[in-house]
Design a protein that fits this description.
There is one protein chain. The protein is of the alpha+beta class and 481 residues long. It folds into three domains: 22-115, Immunoglobulin-like, CATH 2.60.40.3330; 132-342, no CATH class; 352-480, Glutaredoxin, CATH 3.40.30.10. It has helices spanning 2-21, 49-52, 117-130, 133-141, 147-171, 176-204, 235-254, 264-278, 281-296, 304-320, 324-342, 381-385, 387-396, 413-423, 438-441, 468-480, and strands at 23-30, 39-43, 55-60, 67-74, 78-84, 87-95, 100-105, 110-113, 352-355, 360-362, 370-377, 402-409, 428-431, 449-453, 459-464. The strands form three sheets. It has a seven-stranded mixed β-sheet with strand order 10-9-13-12-11-14-15, covered by helices on one side. α5 packs antiparallel against α6 (176-204), α9 (281-296) packs parallel to α11 and α10 (304-320) packs antiparallel against α11.
């Protein structure tokens, strides 16, 4: 009897421990019966993902009745995206461990049930209020306002978002975890708008250089709890950390009479110095990591050895501290670095995708030509900005064995085709709606991303920088071989 009691007690304790540390998120439902594409679930798997974007964590193919189910074990809440083909079932929705949601898709609508349905409803509704219609236009136009008018508007906007969240929660119950997450998102969205005002003001007014900040402009940062545990699960938090460093650095560079003589290595060291003056602890490591991302995107094959040495020296910083968050970052960036360089001088991974005429096209179709691969998205402003440069490059190399092959991600086919027509974009255009792991094959998580491939199908630049003069020179060299 005593043994049985101990047996029961042991497994009872085990059940309690597992209950405390991990619970499943269950997402299930029915797709439209005509749609047999696999569904992909994305989330932030580690700290590095908050810099680069969500990673796919699971995929399922619906059965003959259209039924699908995801069971994802997790210890704490985080955001998820569910996608089928080029359709988003939901986008960046926060779920807690133990949540469940049932989804039913028809021709005209998607229905949600379960204790996660209000999470989806909130994420669907607040953009309609704050980023669409007249308010959306006012928000975009606010970056053209004077500084005082902008600050007044953006403060009112933050309070309006808090009020909207409270009103929504009064009408449709939301978990405490979801409300805490939403509060952090509102707070850091407000801070990010204030940080980005300086450069957006110059952009909208077609100004050159940097608007010099008035004394005390960045004091609002002191009101934020940058060590708040909940903030580490909010992506805008990471943007704030990076933009704060960037703005402080830009202000210092703006006042430096020798700014034009700054080499890339010196700029990086100067930014690290800014980080050391602003941050301590985990937040300092996060900021270092974001600078590391810029180093990995440092263009030019001639600089590869210098890039390797520089990244190695920065990685030493991550190895010195045994904090779990820092170890996470160290492992992430070491993997990023190795992947970034591993593609160099290797055969380009092949893929087959549909072109504008719905014909299947393979990358190997263009063997014998120098290829510039352009991975992009309709919703990526820097991608759209580079289209005229892409056309210029193609005009310069017209008649030679060179081709630009673009691959569109995270977009709808109608938007994709419309953008190409609108921009009169030259080249070969492909749409990625069924190779969910193509970005993994080429080791990138953000757009635009460029890869330069020689006539023999060998990658010569795994993360090319779109500078027409440098690219043209490198392409001409490859054409001679």
């Amino acid at each position: 009897m005593v043994k049985a009691s101990r047996f029961i007690l042991f497994f009872g304790l085990m059940a309690i421990v597992s209950h405390i540390y991990a619970k499943p998120l269950v997402i299930q439902g029915y797709t439209h019966t005509k749609d047999k594409d696999s569904l992909y679930l994305y989330t932030y798997q580690n700290t590095g993902d908050y810099l680069e974007g969500m990673s796919p964590v699971s995929s399922v193919k619906p059965d003959s009745n259209g039924f699908f189910r995801f069971i994802y074990q997790m210890k704490e809440g985080k955001e998820f995206t569910l996608k089928q083909g080029d359709k988003y079932i939901f986008f960046n929705v926060f779920f807690s461990a133990g949540d469940s949601i049932r989804i039913n898709m028809s021709d005209n609508a998607i229905g949600y049930e379960g204790n996660g349905q209000n999470n989806v409803a909130y994420n669907d509704s607040f953009p309609q209020v704050f980023y669409r219609g007249d308010e959306g236009k006012k928000y975009t136009g606010s970056f053209k306002m004077s500084l005082d008018s902008f600050n007044s508007y953006i403060d009112e906007r933050k309070e309006a978002r808090y009020h909207f969240l409270q009103k929504f929660a009064d009408e449709k119950p939301l978990s405490d975890a979801f409300i805490n997450q939403a509060n952090q998102d509102i707070e850091y969205n407000w801070a990010l708008d204030k940080l980005q005002y300086l450069w957006k003001y110059t952009y909208f007014h077609h100004m050159k250089g940097v608007v010099e900040a008035k004394p005390g402009y960045f004091d609002f940062i002191d009101k934020l709890d940058i060590q708040h545990k909940l903030a580490f699960n909010v992506r805008r938090y990471y943007f704030c950390v990076k933009d704060y460093v960037t703005e402080i650095w830009e202000q210092k560079l703006h006042r430096n009479p020798y700014k034009d003589q700054y080499k890339f290595e010196n700029q990086i060291r100067a930014r690290l110095s800014v980080i050391d003056s602003l941050y301590r602890g985990k937040i300092r490591v996060i900021a270092y990591g974001q600078v590391f991302e810029d180093i990995l995107k440092w263009p030019g094959t001639k600089d590869n050895q210098a890039k390797i040495q520089f990244t190695d020296s920065l990685l030493e910083i991550f190895k010195k501290d045994h904090d779990a968050k820092q170890i996470d970052f160290y492992e992430y960036f070491l993997k990023e670095k190795n992947q970034n360089f591993s593609l160099m001088n290797q055969p380009a991974p092949d893929f087959k995708l549909k072109d504008l005429n719905d014909s299947i096209v393979s990358l190997t179709n263009y063997r014998g030509k120098v290829i510039l691969l352009d991975f992009w998205s309709v919703h990526c402003a820097p991608c759209i900005k580079e289209i005229p440069n892409s056309n210029t490059l193609q005009d310069k190399l017209k008649g030679k064995d060179f081709v630009v092959v673009t691959v569109c991600f995270d977009s709808k086919q109608k938007e994709w085709k419309g953008m190409i027509v609108k921009q009169q974009w030259k080249g070969i255009h492909l749409f990625n709606n069924f190779d969910a792991h193509l970005n993994d094959k080429y080791f990138f998580n953000s757009y635009p991303h460029y890869v330069l491939i020689d006539k023999f199908g060998i990658i010569r630049e795994s993360n090319a920088y779109f500078d027409i003069q440098n690219l043209e020179g490198h392409i001409e060299d490859l054409l001679k071989n």
